[in-house]
Design brief:
By secondary structure, the protein is mostly beta strands. Helices cover 9% and strands 44% of the residues. It is built from 3 helices and 25 strands.
Amino acid sequence: METVSLSSLNGQAYFISGMPDVTIPSADDASRHVTIVCDGVTLFDEELWPVGGVITLEDLGLLFEPYTSKKLVCGVTITDGSSTAAFTILFAKVDVGISAAEFYASRFLTILDGPKVTALGRLEYLWMYGAEAAVVTAVYDDATTGTFSATVVSSSSTYRQLDVSPDRFVANGKRLVSYTVTAGQRSQRFDIDFSQPDCAPILEFYNSFGVWELLYCTGTHRVNPQYKRSSTRVHGKLRNYHIEETRNFLADTGILTTAMANWAEDLFRSDEVYVVNVIGGSITNADGGKEVTITESKSEISNNDDFMPRFTFTYQYAQRIQNVMQLNRVGRIFDNTFDNTFN
């Protein structure tokens, strides 16, 4: 882990995953009263003694993680009694290999490093740190192009969420082939899958940067309900007095590109995942979907020439009640992400 002096923190920005250790010199070996304040909340307030003339603050990223996981950006001050350093911390649970400032200026907030395959009818998000205007360049099957402004659906003083769903860039009499979203130095390409495969499940999850992304699974989807029954004899008859149901869903991402396979692993790192229904480029679940917990996953990648990556995983509803009705999807099986072809 990199080590920096307290004074060098001033005006800097750091990911919590790359937050360096901080040293405070004490030439006279005297103690220092150290305080750490994050967005007005005092996280640390202690008298510290030096070792070898230096006080070292280690693993600060772990201290900041709970406060940045939802706010994403926080202002921090560290005071040693005589001097103060003010800097910014940013949520990220990934080692990006460059400084936070370099990454945010050149990348959207995703670990995807390559084109993303999508299809008409899907919802697609992009998030960015900054205020640059985002422009979409669409390519059609007749080799013509179209230019659009990306739709900002939410924003703060630091972050912007873009809706870059493919339905927004269709043109009459033409077939959309691909489109590229650019904002400053950032660029993300989307390629259209003309087969428009059925998707189940559709999962919305917090990625490594603490923002929402969507994964559309196109492989086989199965359900394996299990029932744990507790029984006893009542008046000579065997009765079940408690039945515990667990609905285990088995999902398959379908075949992925190498870039998307590396990106899809972010789902398995996420601590908050929802199964949702998307129609016409918008989430139709009134409550935003049902939270689920991934219980098993297999995400093997090989460099063999004939290897086609696809991941399988098992999930279940996070809530205690597993018997979930889908009143707005009467006749569908498994869950509300199946479309009418599964009736």
